[in-house]
Write a structure and sequence with these properties.
This is Arsenic transport integral membrane protein ArsB. It holds the Pfam family CitMHS. By secondary structure, this protein is mainly alpha-helical. The protein has 18 helices and no strands. It starts with a helix and ends with a helix.
C-alpha cells in the first residue's frame, strides 16, 4: 500500500515531485545499507551460525530455564546489535523455539525475549535497526562515536528488561525441566564469524576515514553471498530475495508519504509539544513523545517525522528520539514491524500470544527500560 500511497501523494500535489525525489535520494544510502545487512544476516544463517548458537545455548543452559533466559538475552542482544533486529526476529526466534523444545523448558519467556530485545537491544550500532540508520544519518556522528554514546543506554535498557522478565515470568522459569540430552558440540562456522568481525572492523575504519559504512556492509555481504554461490547453495535470485526488495520499496515510499504529511501540518503540530533543549527533562520528554508516537503510527514513520524536528538541537535530541522509537514499541503489536513479524512467526509455531499478557509485560518493561536509558544517555553526553 505504501507505493500507491506515495504515488497518490505526488499526483494530488500533497508533495511535489522534486521533494519526493529529494526524500528518496536522502533515504537511498540508508536503504542500500539495510539491503547489505539483510543479505549478510541471511548468509550467516546459510553458514549455520544461528543453528550453532542455538546448540551452544542449549548446552550451556543445561536444562535450567533461568540460565537459558540469560543465554537468550546475551545471544539476542549480540545478534540484534551486529546483524540487525530482523535477524533476531526471522532467524533466531525459530532457533529459540527449537532450543526450548530440546531442553524441555517452557518457551514463552525465551520467545518473548526475542521480540523485546529485537527492539531494545537495537540501540547500540547504526546497523542494528533501520531507525538507527536514519538517526545516524541525521545526527552527524561517526560510527564509533554513535556506538560510544549508545553503549551505556544499551546496557542499562537490556539490564532493566532482564529484571522485568525474571519477575514477570517467575512461574515459567521455576518450572522443572527434564535432563537435556547430551550431544556433541557443533563445529563453529568460522568463516561466517570472521566475516562478521571483519565487517564490524570495516564499519569503524570507514567511519574513521569519512567513507560511507555501506561499503563495508556491502563487502561483507558479497563475501558470504559469493561463497554460498560458489558452493552451489545459492543463486542470484536467492541474493535478491535476501535483500528484500519489496521491503526496501516500502521504506522509500513510506518516507515520501511521511514527508508529505509533515509538510502539510504535522511538523507544526508536533513543534508545539516537542520539548526544547538537551537537558535531562527535555531528553525524557522527547523520548516519551517518540515512544507514544511509535505506538500510534509505528516506529518507522515516527522516526521519520521526529528527526527533522530534533536534528537542529544536536545529536542528544536525535538519540533521545531513537531511545523512544526503539524501546517504546515493546508496548503494543503495532509499535514496530519487527513485533508484527514476530507475532506471525510465533503463530506459525502454534504458540498463542495473549494480547493482555503482552501489554502487561510492555507496561512494566517500557518505562523500566526507557527512563534509566535516557538518564544513561544524558550522562554519556556529558562525559563523552
Amino acid at each position: 500500500m505504501a507505493v500507491p500511497a506515495a504515488a497518490l501523494a505526488v499526483a494530488t500535489g500533497a508533495i511535489s515531485l522534486d521533494h519526493a525525489r529529494a526524500e528518496a535520494e536522502r533515504l537511498g544510502p540508508v536503504v542500500g545499507f539495510l539491503a547489505a545487512v539483510l543479505v549478510l544476516a541471511h548468509f550467516c544463517d546459510v553458514e549455520g551460525l544461528f543453528q550453532a548458537c542455538g546448540a551452544w545455548t542449549a548446552r550451556w543452559a543445561g536444562g535450567r530455564p533461568v540460565r537459558l533466559l540469560t543465554a537468550v538475552f546475551a545471544l539476542a542482544s549480540a545478534i540484534t546489535a551486529v546483524l540487525s533486529l530482523d535477524a533476531t526476529i526471522v532467524l533466531l526466534t525459530p532457533v529459540v523455539f527449537a532450543t526450548a523444545a530440546r531442553t524441555g523448558v517452557r518457551p514463552k519467556p525465551h520467545v518473548y525475549a526475542c521480540t523485546h530485545l529485537s527492539n531494545t537491544a537495537s540501540l547500540l550500532l547504526p546497523v542494528s535497526n533501520l531507525t538507527n540508520l536514519l538517526a545516524f544519518a541525521a545526527s552527524g556522528l561517526s560510527f564509533t562515536r554513535f556506538a560510544a554514546l549508545m553503549a551505556l543506554p544499551w546496557l542499562v535498557a537490556i539490564g532493566a528488561e532482564y529484571v522485568v522478565f525474571r519477575r514477570f515470568f517467575a512461574r515459567d522459569l521455576a518450572a522443572a525441566a527434564p535432563a537435556p540430552a547430551s550431544g556433541e558440540a557443533p563445529e563453529p562456522p568460522l568463516f561466517a564469524l570472521v566475516t562478521v568481525v571483519c565487517t564490524l572492523a570495516g564499519f569503524v575504519v570507514t567511519s574513521t576515514f569519512g567513507v560511507d559504512p555501506v561499503w563495508a556492509a556491502l563487502a561483507g555481504a558479497l563475501v558470504l553471498a559469493g561463497r554460498a554461490m560458489a558452493r552451489g547453495k545459492a543463486g542470484v535470485a536467492t541474493v535478491v530475495r535476501a535483500a528484500a526488495p519489496a521491503f526496501l520499496a516500502f521504506v522509500l515510499a513510506l518516507g515520501v508519504v511521511v514527508r508529505a504529511v509533515v509538510d502539510n501540518g504535522l511538523a507544526d503540530a508536533l513543534g508545539h509539544v516537542l520539548p526544547a533543549g538537551t537537558g535531562l527533562p527535555a531528553l525524557l520528554g522527547i523520548a516519551a513523545l517518540a515512544a507514544v508516537l511509535a505506538n500510534l503510527i509505528n516506529n518507522l514513520p515516527a522516526v521519520l517525522v521526529l528527526l527533522p524536528l530534533t536534528a537542529p538541537a544536536g545529536p542528544g535530541a536525535v538519540l533521545a528520539v531513537l531511545l523512544g522509537v526503539n524501546i517504546g514499541p515493546n508496548l503494543t503489536y503495532a509499535g514496530s514491524l519487527a513485533t508484527l513479524l514476530w507475532r506471525r512467526i510465533v503463530h506459525q509455531h502454534e504458540h498463542g500470544v495473549d494480547l493482555r499478557e503482552f501489554t502487561r509485560l510492555g507496561l512494566l518493561a517500557v518505562p523500566s527500560a526507557l527512563v534509566p536509558a535516557v538518564v544513561a544517555l544524558w550522562g554519556a553526553l556529558r562525559i563523552l
